[in-house]
Design brief:
Layout: E1 3-9, H1 15-26, E2 30-32, E3 41-48, H2 55-58, E4 63-71, E5 73-75, E6 84-87, H3 94-101, E7 106-110, E8 119-120, E9 123-124, H4 125-130, E10 140-152, E11 157-164, H5 170-180, E12 185-195, E13 198-199, E14 204-205, H6 206-211, E15 230-233, H7 235-242, E16 248-251, E17 254-260, E18 263-271, E19 273-280
Parallel strand pairs: 1-14, 3-12, 15-17
Antiparallel strand pairs: 1-3, 2-3, 4-11, 4-12, 5-6, 7-10, 8-9, 10-11, 12-13, 16-19, 17-18, 18-19
Length: about 280
């Protein structure tokens, strides 16, 4: 059994628990792409069986988030689950926010939250932060494709829509956008509405998945998550490659979704006419 389940994780549930529901149902190894914090909800793609090997090709896909930021204070976690560390009371105007957002579109440098899964000397950031250990995280380059102010949802709270590439921390955007406006901010809500081909519209809630006896119907075929050119091998070619015999078939250089005739095999790379399978999903 292999494929992807597009789980819709609810607020208050850990990503690990959500993935555990798929493992329990299918009795095969599973992994997830892009952890959602317990306070967040939305799309959580889960790789079932060998399909998890394809995550490396999906990590840089576009992701869409709907986020709420509350202004006037900040917390140690950069979201409302943390302890308030500083307050100002200052709330930006819509015009200030719209001006600030323009500076966050494109490739930018972003400092990850200390309460994150980033590694520092072999330890996770959140592990060190919970113990009160002082440390600094280096800025990293991330890509923001679009940033939009949707509405003001409360006296001090605004709702935003961000389309980003993988590795972007929305909590850090709350901090940095507030700083550009001369105040403090923290994330109060987060929904991931899409991640590549996975969206809220084609997902299944954890409870729906657990309750369905024929849960296999929710499986998305591995090859449907990729957009590489299709390359179909003959049975003879496939067997040679499988046995480590690499011949020049005149294939143009590039990355391909590779098929043994009609069976999807995985992802391969062609160089100088020779094809090698980088990732088998069989």
């Amino acid at each position: 059994m292999k494929g992807f389940i597009n789980l819709i994780k609810p607020k208050g549930m850990s990503s690990a628990y959500a993935v555990g529901a798929v493992k329990y149902k299918f009795k095969v190894p599973c992994g997830h792409m892009g952890t959602l914090d317990p306070m967040a909800e939305g799309v959580l793609p889960v790789g079932v069986g060998q399909a998890s090997r394809l995550f490396q090709y999906l990590l840089d896909k576009e992701k869409t988030y709907i986020a709420k930021f509350v202004f006037g204070h900040t917390t140690d976690t950069l979201d409302v689950t943390g302890q308030v560390t500083e307050s100002t009371g200052a709330v930006p105007t819509k015009a200030q926010l719209q001006t600030a957002l323009k500076e966050f579109v494109g490739e930018i440098e972003q400092i990850p939250p200390k309460y994150s899964a980033k590694c520092i000397d072999g330890k996770r950031g959140y592990q060190l932060a919970r113990k009160g250990v002082e440390f600094e995280l280096a800025p990293k380059k991330v890509t923001i494709l679009s940033a939009e102010l949707l509405s003001q949802t409360d006296e001090k709270e605004f709702e935003f829509k961000f389309v980003v590439k993988g590795g972007t921390y929305i909590r850090s955007l709350a901090r940095d956008i507030a700083y550009k406006c001369g105040t403090l901010g923290t994330m109060s809500a987060l929904t991931r509405s899409s991640c590549g081909i996975f969206s809220l519209e084609n997902g299944v809630t954890v409870e729906q998945f657990k309750a369905e006896e024929n849960a296999e119907k929710f499986l998305i075929a591995p090859e449907k998550t990729l957009n590489f050119p299709r390359l179909s091998l003959t049975e003879k070619q496939a067997m040679k490659i499988l046995n480590g015999v690499f011949e020049n078939y005149g294939i143009a250089d590039g990355i391909y979704s590779v098929y043994n005739e009609e069976e999807f095999w995985g992802v391969g790379t062609a160089q100088d006419g020779v094809l090698k399978i980088n990732t088998y999903v069989r």
